[in-house]
Specification:
single chain; 8-stranded mixed barrel; 28% helix; elongated
Amino acid sequence: MTQKSPFAGWCNPPSRLKSFLFAAALPVSMYIFADQAAMAAPEGNCPAGSAASTDTAQQVCGEDETGSKDSAILQSLDALAAHGLDPASYTRSDASPRDAWLLAATHLRRGAIDAETLAPRLEADAALAETFDALPTDSDAEAYSAALDALAPTSSLYAALQTELAAHQQSPLTSADAKAASAAQARMASLRASLERLRWLPRENTERQIYANIPTFEVVALTGDTEVSRHVAIFGEEDRQTPEFSDTITYLEFSPWWNVPASMARRDKLPDFQNDPGEIEELGYKVLDASGKPVNASNIDWSTISADDFPYRLRQAPGPDNALGQVKIMFPNEHAIYLHDTPHTELFDQEDRALSAGCIRVEDIAALSEWLLEDTSGWGKAEIDAAKGSDTETRANLSSPVSIHMVYLTAFPAADGTITYAEDVYSLDAALLPALAGNAPDEAAGNGSESLED
């Protein structure tokens, strides 16, 4: 059943948030920008081509045309605090105000950190120069700020996290309650990391989307900004992590065969077969040689087979014991990751659901399948039920592909709209935050060493 989205209404931050973010003195947490106050703003005129401000909103500049424009550009960088970025970090070099703005624009458009290497993105995207140059020459700080904001993700999810960050920024940390301060630091770190990861996502997506969020062990289906369904899910173990990437769902398979990955055949199935060879027939496995020809499993002495020299391919036939269950949701990718059903539904009751070899097991995947196929002719509920109950694999091509994102957001909206904070199960935030902070003093504190829960 379609429910009101916890993301709805957050497509754009409310005016009270915008005015807060653009205030002359941002009450930014000592955790987020601990070293900003130590940087003194210059007095007098702002020379053309200089970027000398840290507290840009309080900078005093000359009234000449060039100085006034530079002042407006530098002041506009204060808007970066709303995105979890440090305005001061863009004015610490001899870069011109224009170059500082272009680097900030690049970070909002593509991320401040390279997603693959976790290296800081140090060069501006030359294409964004057109955006800057298109602004009127008499633009004020608010216009430059608005142009920056327009380059950030426009999703309701991003805006929801921005709003949560602003609430924290309006409540500066104190040392009165060390435990509470540490927990608040951890939440703000989670928000900064999650906002950055959302900046890595593609901007061109279908109207219908799925977010598979690893830290909260959930799969959420959206139409526009409206949440359609939310599913408990199982993701990869810590040493077999589900990767972060985006793709497009193009088809489903009902009553699927399971082609066991070679790594799983060696690591998981070989020990099982050595312990109980009867499991092969009982669970519907087929053994093939390297050329794909069937092998009589009863003639194999599994005790003589080693993982280092495993000569077989394994397939599991459709049926009640099939590891993929009755449904497989496909978005072909280099990681060989997909969503699927499972016969072991009891595992959905576990709190820590990092249990798979990387693929994503979804509770009530039947409902998700019906939603995916709702505009595909010939695939109503009756046809889906028949295909699920068959002993023959059946493929259903979507008439309208659906964007899917495997994301790692330790700050994520719950069904009621509140932001929940999940544990850093793969320690990916712990790796990202120092890079995002540039290893500034106190930036990495609390980025995973403290619980995010109350």
